[in-house]
Amino acid sequence: MDRPVSTGTNSQARWRLGADGWSLSCPNGTAIPLTRAERLVVERLLLTPGRLVTREALFEALADGDFDSHRLDSLVYRLRRKVAEGCGTGLPLDAIHGEGYMLDATR
């Protein structure tokens, strides 16, 4: 059984982490496998759906002192492409220029 991508406060979440946390379930039911870094970023974004998660908070979630801004942007780009190809729909992830990212799990 899949768990909501949010912390459980939003029962209408359409994007979900798989029960084991290593896949992202799309609204159509397709499961996309996640790498460690993708999982950490998605999990952090889903803790506060529809709200800004700063770049610094994402760096902390990745817990890698060598993680830089360019690597985060590349990770998000690859994640978006992977989800679009696997699910046939885009991940509802908005970039807030210079600030961070926001995921709307109900879109």
The average pLDDT value, as a whole number, equals: 86
Total DSSP E strands = 7
Shape: globular
The biggest beta sheet reads: 4 strands, antiparallel
Count the DSSP helices: 3
Radius of gyration: 13 Å
Q: How much of the polypeptide forms β-strand, as a percent range?
A: 15-25%
**Structural class of the helices, strands and pairings?**
alpha+beta
- State the strand order across the main sheet: 1-2-3-4
Unreliable segments (pLDDT under 50, ≥5 consecutive)?
1-11
Distance between the termini: 21 Å
Which percent bin holds the helix content? 25-40%
* Series of H and E elements: EEEEHEHHEE
Describe the secondary structure blueprint for this structure.
Blueprint: E1 3-4, E2 16-17, E3 23-25, E4 31-33, H1 36-47, E5 53-54, H2 55-62, H3 69-87, E6 93-96, E7 100-103
Antiparallel strand pairs: 1-2, 2-3, 3-4, 5-7, 6-7
Helix pairs in contact: 1-2
Write a brief structural summary.
By secondary structure, the protein is of the alpha+beta class. It has helices at 36-47, 55-62, 69-87; strands at 3-4, 16-17, 23-25, 31-33, 53-54, 93-96, 100-103.
How would you describe the overall organization of this protein?
With 107 residues, the chain is of the alpha+beta class. It has 3 helices and 7 strands, in the order E-E-E-E-H-E-H-H-E-E. It has helices at residues 36-47, 55-62, 69-87, and strands at residues 3-4, 16-17, 23-25, 31-33, 53-54, 93-96, 100-103. The strands form 2 sheets. Strands 1-2-3-4 form a 4-stranded antiparallel sheet, with helices on one face. Strands 5-7-6 form a 3-stranded antiparallel sheet. A hairpin with a 5-residue loop joins strand 2 (16-17) and strand 3. Helix 1 crosses helix 2 (55-62). The longest helix is centred in the C-terminal third of the chain and has 19 residues, at 69-87. The chain is globular. Mean pLDDT is 86; it is low at 1-11.
